[in-house]
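Reviewer 2 asked us to include a model.

Predict the structure of this chain.
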Amino acid sequence: MPMIVLCLVQFMLVLDDTVVNVALPSIRDDLGFGASGLPWVVNAYFLAFGGLLLLCGRLADLLGRRRVFLIGVALFGVASLACGLAQHPWQLVAGRFVQGTGSAMAGPAAMSMITLLYPGPEERAKALGIWGGIAALGATSGLVISGALTDMVSWRWIFLINLPVVAVALALLPRLVPESRAPGRRRLDVPGAVLVTGTAVTLVYGLLRAGATGWTDPVVIGVVVLSAALAVAFLSVESRAVVPLVPGAFLASRTRAVANGATLLFSMAMYAMSFLLMIQVQTALGYSPLLAGIAYLPYGAGILSGMWLSSRISPRIGTRWKLLLAFLVNIAGLLLLSGLVAGDSYLVHVLPGMLVLGLGNGLGLPVMATAAVDGTTEDDAGLGSALFTSVQQIGGAVGVAALAVMGYSSGLMAGAICMALGAVLIVALLPPQANGPRQPADMESAAEASR
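Predicted model (structure tokens):
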């Protein structure tokens, strides 16, 4: 039951990544958005979400994962109501920013709770596989749900439908999941928190702006340089902190480092593919936005098939070879889709590549998520979950900003190159013995008792 509630919330959070895209023209007409203001309906969410993930993940470790999760869900619900009732552009943008903040609190806290509830390698891999699959289904469902609600009712309902999910989570989760936090009395490293948040916010803003104006924009260059300077300052402060925001031992895991590096390349390719394919099927095949969203649904079916297959592959194969297989399958899917041109058939030129990519995603997502939290404990599970999610978001923003400007075929080919680089990284650097997370026996007993 805890897993069902947490996955339901995750579906809702990821749904809101994409659910506004189809509704943007209706939102513009209803609220009177200008051309420069409308993108902030999307960007405000991503700026808060991507910028606050690391801070909120660490706060979950220190203050209590269940507490931070419930605060985040409540904040997300209030913001959803505000978005649904917005009468002016600034109200909707502010609501979306608060939604992103709530999502940054709830998402890493939920993933870290799953990490600790399922400590064994195989059961954790299955749990995170389901978690990743639900997230992917939420992303693919957003376009269809948005189009249906906008056409049949009102764009406001893409936000108001969140309220029942929020109510269920707030009512049930306190009864199902015990509180957990880092052992001992810990205090927040305030300078580190300020610097890491500044680094993430400026980087995400720079990437979002680069996607709209290009990498030669002086503002983009200035913001990215500022982000790099803040990152250097953060590392300097952390090296001298008595209780650092990111413990030194956390950064020492080669398995986690490679998993997050591979995730960055994976996300660059997949976010760019989604962006480019959605445009291509509307321009080359003449689909409406809603029909394009429906055409995207087999991708979700492929992910479910990949998750099932991933759970059946022998654990003795190890993380390295499972990930390599997933990346090679994704390369094949990107190459299959890269040749789509005007007049092509959906069944022949889109569906096969989409199913192959879904299969590769389903194979790889649970393995990457498990490796990214390899060896995390009560002390740093929230940080590990937040870092993994941050890498996904930053990789996606880089992919859209850098690869999407290349055009459809070139962008997908570049995505295939990113996947190939990820495959090389996995084979060269991922430890052969990396077979999943390890937990101390006393933590396993505690987790068993909590279920």
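The mean pLDDT is 84. The CA atoms of residues 181 and 281 lie 47 Å apart. We have added this to the supplementary material.
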